[in-house]
Amino acid sequence: MKYGLRTRLVGTLIGVVLLSALVIAIAARTTMNGELDRLARQEAGTGALGFGGYWDQKRESVRLLVTQSAIQDAVRTGTAKRERAGLSAILEGIARQGGLSFLTIVSEKGVVIARSGTGPVGGKEPSPHLARALDGEILATAAVLEKSELAAETLTPQVDQPIKNDDGSAAGQQDRGLALIAAAPVNDDNNRTIGAVYGGVLMNHFYDVVDQAQIALGGKTALLLGDAIVAGSIARPDGTRLVDTKDPSADAAIAKKEDVTTIDTIGGTAYLARIVPLVDDQLAVIGARWYGIPKARFDDIEKKTLQAIVLWSLVGLGLALAIGIPVVDRLSRLIARRSKQVRDSARELAVVVVGSEVSGDHVAQTRATVERSGDLLLALGTSSDASAASGGLIAAKGVVEAVHTLSELNAEVLSDVIVIDTLAQEMGARMADAKTRVAELTEVARGLDRLVTGTDE
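Structure (tokenized):
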């Protein structure tokens, strides 16, 4: 199938615009993928750092509450005198005001004197951190609370939950707690350790830190004990919190003991997540902090940008066609007009060549000379008859002159014939060359027609 110049030029114009749009779209998408990924990772890193700030702030808050409790005169006096009722009231007030899950005072031998809650007193406190506090150390750290310690502080119901995989299948039972704890020695007036204050916040199902971080930072947050989420702002498709759920993506950060940035699909949503290992004061990894940004946020940016590129490409195509089609049309018409002129000129040249094999001027001149010779011969015959009748000698003189003139005319005719023959030969050669030129012009005109119309007509 053949196409005309107009069709080909318009098609080329459309193809160039569409190809340019495609190249721009591919280049933009490639660039955006890289830049958006870099931006997302940077935002995830910044958000994780901010989330770490909230975590550290809460840990410092626990430390301050515990250490301030340890140096209160009422606590020091009550510890020295073993005033359980008074100490319990003081501890309950401090815990309620400071948002602590538990606050306990033990003697220098680790025996519980008083608690902020309803747990048992008089027995040995099972926390391994108290021994360091009784040795005079002030500590504040993340820690794992085992079943015995949770039971002593009556915190087991907050922890005892079934653990599920992200698909809802059972994955075990949670029986430990993730907590921010602090411990400080209680000294008497002689700076002698007479006991210790031990308290903290159990993070299982405690949403204050994760919600504050989400509001301030914009992303989703979660705290993991091992690879199980124990608190977070991640929502399930039904809108409920995703908690007590395993997140296998955290295993890489826990195993490597280093921050990991990854695409983490959890709760039906894909996130670009920054997972930071949680360590205790002995540098043992006990869990992770999780901060994620919905990947759809960056996918939407990419999608809208590509849509804008496509839209503006279509606008550009429309403008190109609006400007280009008239130009192509004028160019096509001009070429068609020139093609017609070439073809017409070829036809005229062919007529001139065919009808001009011999010069018209020489033919007319020779004809006139022959006619004069005929007239002279006719006059000579008439003169001879008259001279014979009269026997005149006078008329003979005119005959001689006529014969002389006739001889000159014959010589002129012979010369003209020679010239005509030479011209005829030359014209024959020119005619052959002209016919070749006519054929070439005709072929050029036909080629122009094919170029413009796409047909041989």
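Residues 5-71 form the longest helix (67 residues). The longest strand covers residues 177-187.
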